């Protein structure tokens, strides 16, 4: 199978590339998972996060924002001792804060899915890049989304982190056209 060149031979990377990256996500829990992981990734490699994903699932109640929103300072201190996650106080506290903000967005819009997909008109942006160097770090859409998330009180959601979330959650299809997943992912697109 021809893959995007960033997908190394590491089985975790291959599985992530082949089965998840760029697939449109319409499930709120999955959006919270990607948002939490992308925020944790800031300044680190994505493979570092993928290797700790199961630790994050365990530590953050399988990414149930209703449970995570109830985490108190004692729970944060406990998480800072958990070797299964990135033990950075700001990132752990951001995950708890973001769970609370996530619930507020769900309350206002009916779902986080409806909210986030509105930034791309309810349909993925399909790019046709031929080289990795063409992929942007951020776009006007990610800048707008980042600003809105920050205005709502979310943390660790800069435009680059938000664009990574948009790529992961299929709001954009950034598989290179030479990658077999470009066409496959495009076929999964449906209107919201």
UniProtKB/TrEMBL annotation:
Q: Which InterPro entries is this protein grouped with?
A: Adenine_glyco, DNA_glycosylase, Tag
Q: EC number(s)?
A: 3.2.2.20
> Which keywords fit this entry according to its UniProt record?
DNA damage, DNA repair, Hydrolase, Metal-binding, Zinc
What GO biological process terms are annotated to this protein in UniProt? Answer: base-excision repair
Which residues constitute the signal peptide according to the record?
none
The top EC class is hydrolase
Its job: Hydrolysis of the deoxyribose N-glycosidic bond to excise 3-methyladenine from the damaged DNA polymer formed by alkylation lesions.
Q: What is this protein called?
A: DNA-3-methyladenine glycosylase I
Tell me the organism's taxonomic lineage.
Answer: Bacteria, Pseudomonadati, Bacteroidota, Bacteroidia, Bacteroidales
